[in-house]
Amino acid sequence: MSIIADPVTEETLGAREARQPSSKVAYFGPDEPLRLDGGRTLSPFHLAYETYGELNADKSNAIYVCHALTGDQYAASPNPVTGKAGWWSTLIGPGKPIDTDRFFVVCANVLGSCMGSTGPASTDFETGMPYALALPVLTIPDMVRAQAMLIDRLGIDTLFAVIGGSMGGMQCLQWTVAYPSRVFAALPIATGARHSSQNIAFHEVGRQAVMADPDWHGGDYIQHGTRPHKGLAVARMAAHVTYLSEAALQRKFGRNLQDRDKLGFGFDADFQIESYLRHQGMTFVDRFDANAYLYLTRAMDYFDIAAEHGGRLAEAFRQTKTRFCLVSFSSDWLFPTEESRAVVHALNANAASVSFVEIETDKGHDAFLLDEPEFIGAVAGFVSSAAKARGLVR
Amino acid sequence: MSIIADPVTEETLGAREARQPSSKVAYFGPDEPLRLDGGRTLSPFHLAYETYGELNADKSNAIYVCHALTGDQYAASPNPVTGKAGWWSTLIGPGKPIDTDRFFVVCANVLGSCMGSTGPASTDFETGMPYALALPVLTIPDMVRAQAMLIDRLGIDTLFAVIGGSMGGMQCLQWTVAYPSRVFAALPIATGARHSSQNIAFHEVGRQAVMADPDWHGGDYIQHGTRPHKGLAVARMAAHVTYLSEAALQRKFGRNLQDRDKLGFGFDADFQIESYLRHQGMTFVDRFDANAYLYLTRAMDYFDIAAEHGGRLAEAFRQTKTRFCLVSFSSDWLFPTEESRAVVHALNANAASVSFVEIETDKGHDAFLLDEPEFIGAVAGFVSSAAKARGLVR
After folding, report:
1. CATH fold of B199-298, please?
2. Whether complex ipTM tops 0.90
3. CA B146/CA B385 separation, integer angstroms
């Protein structure tokens, strides 16, 4: 009756990609340890990344793209696991708002994830075994610190822009806080300066679903030759509901039945929404590592910029020289507009350059990944005016 | 790491109560089969119920109380499993808005549940084994049809009132639709005339969590001597988030840490909200049957009054003589005010007697179970004026 057949033992495409990424990979050896917020260091580690376009001569046209919880470095090129187009192909490419004919775009798989960067499925060289839960718990600032090392490695001093949505938006904000003079423009989208109680709650449900799966084996499923796919599928289903909106669900699915003209009086998927969610759960487990899901949700839960600055969010942006454009979506209940507004207020308190757009849409949190003309237009407008200000216009 | 220790084999207090209820029990034998919406009949079956107060001579003072998804018949008396006060003690008792010195209150455990009424954990007399998934899938109208048989058995023709919140509100509405001349007054609270796509989605997540637990054994866990407690705990955690509101979570828990003064950098419960949710999951499994959870969530998903009336909700209430008071809560995102308003419009289209109160509160869906003075006052006022209209005032 469960949507996931058991047992699952064969290596998925996703697991293979984690082990042997198709991307470029930047290795950081023992001489370049990463200092972590938890007090430990990570060394060695590596980041798998993609680039699009060409870095110009004075290295002033680089845009760093931060991906969301289950995203990856394939922002604008086909994903080798799913075969799908890059997740932000609407926004990034030749002639697009983030025009790869003009900008050099960098996107790395975040630390702790599973598309080729160091994460819980990576080998711990001290033991020769997968890290699993022996990997230190990571934070958004840790991820961004690693990204800055990659940007250093690429010889780039100041980024023209940093952009990201959801967890990517958290990284984007963190970039401007941690490196106030290295980010010319920032676009934090559908995000906030901290994770709310309700968001922590949904993440905890997902983690418990994973950890309740006996195939999780306390995190050591790789050694056991199992995968907690059932638990991870449930986690994904729960999370997926929060990415949409009631209005979008009503419009897309309503109470429509799936492949039947009357109720089945059983526990198969009667309704289209059930079938859709099951599909989301089933396909997710092929491309995502369960422990990575635990680590990345934890990083989001821990995120709280104000807490790191004496409880005052404005204090975090005191040194900022960045020009900001914040975007929220009216029906996003995971990161409602008030979360963006709180950041705008903190920036205003520092007389920072900030514009703020709330996009009217019923598509919920997911809207930042969709072809929403008003959103795409807002990004295009901001990027182009920032490029002008930066002297990047041909 | 999971919040539920394994293996769980001993009979819980809840399971014992399902088998041998402390309540009064009404048995309906082979001569009184229950016709089910799915096309089958259920026979024999039984309902465990509680009563409070005395039925008056002309049997005109009976109030039927419908409980919610995980509620039970102990509306106004201590629950034998949890030892806690009745779940609606705020509302029902001597001198309370539903005054048991004046009214005869009946509350039965719904069909399909696990506090002594026939449900999936009950014995199927044809096989001598627990029904498990062999129990026909039940609907809200099925539950109400069984309740009407209980009311017949008690010799009551017309109920003075029917009241219920959430799934109880669905039953309350169904009572007025199925028995338009047997309900003098109705109080459907925090409910709707159909289950929304988003609500079906959350229920499906919970069901998948249960069914993903290997201890579920395709529903036959009783024979296997196991219980899918881990899956059921996850289902409860996911559902519990939807019973609250973001504002309530922020106010009660915020990002406060639990029993620690800094982040733990691990996967234990760092935040109070995590600890709270884990507690909700852990305690629920002691009192609730996993298959009953599947059956009752399914019944709610199937509920759609309009669909049974050619898609026109107003048509369902064409014959109504009942006076209605609908109550919604401003921060309830499971059954938002619009769902109540749709019922009010349908009643207005029939020139029915209807009042409607939206209670301003940040406590979310759960508010109907809490001591919300404005809500309690609204119920008291409506019940007392209905009693006057019914000639029940001493």
Report:
1. Rna Polymerase Sigma Factor; Chain: A (1.10.1740)
2. yes
3. 29
